[in-house]
Write a structure and sequence with these properties.
Number of domains: 1
Structural class: mainly alpha
Number of helices: 8
Oligomer: single chain
CATH architecture: Orthogonal Bundle
Order of helices and strands: EEHHHHHHHH
Largest sheet: 2 strands, antiparallel
Strand order of the largest sheet: 1-2
Strand content: under 5%
Helix content: 55-70%
CATH class: Mainly Alpha
CATH superfamily: Hypothetical protein af1432
CATH topology: Hypothetical protein af1432
């Protein structure tokens, strides 16, 4: 019989058949996403999912978006720490989409529950920023120097730092509501 769980960097497990918010921790998310290359690795130099998320969240802060949206921006690809980053054309093929999307959405629900965020994490505003990030990323892939390409260790540190900054601000907002 095939196992339904994966062992995470922290030593915890994530069970696809019975996911649990208690299996989620930000260190696992940051570690996995910092070691996962965007665009199936077809980039001029390593560009992690973690770096993409940090830069998206920082852009949202520059645009004065609410802290909860910035946090959702940081976490919008967090399910990929469990389900991996699959190139969009493949992810949306009918024979893959239903199964993958089911598990990706369940992972996002567990992440939202763990961090006490309103669902969906993939808020329409966050998704607009995600789509808009494609333009500078594609320019960089075509040779424009836009300072993409942190090494995994830096991406992990930046992700955890941004998370702590946003978590503190979000918790402060919740107390003051």
């Amino acid at each position: 019989m095939t196992s339904t769980f994966i062992r995470l960097h922290s030593g915890r497990t994530y069970d696809f058949a019975a996911p649990d918010p208690d299996s989620i921790c930000i260190e696992d998310i940051a570690h996995a996403l910092s070691n996962m290359c965007r665009y199936a690795g077809h980039v001029p130099k390593f560009y992690s999912v973690a770096e993409h998320c940090v830069k998206l969240s920082a852009w949202m802060k520059t645009d004065s978006r609410p802290v909860e949206l910035q946090l959702k921006g940081l976490l919008h690809d967090a399910s990929e720490a469990y389900c991996v980053d699959i190139p969009s054309p493949l992810k949306h093929m009918p024979e893959i989409e239903a199964g993958y999307m089911f598990h990706e959405q369940r992972a996002q629900q567990m992440i939202a529950a763990h961090f006490k965020l309103w669902m969906p994490i993939e808020d329409p505003i966050v998704m607009d920023y995600d789509k808009a990030m494609l333009e500078p990323e594609q320019e960089w892939r075509r040779g424009k120097d836009l300072h993409f390409g942190w090494v995994p260790g830096r991406a992990e540190r930046e992700y955890l730092s941004k998370f702590e900054e946003l978590r503190r601000a979000y918790e402060e907002e919740l107390v003051n509501r």
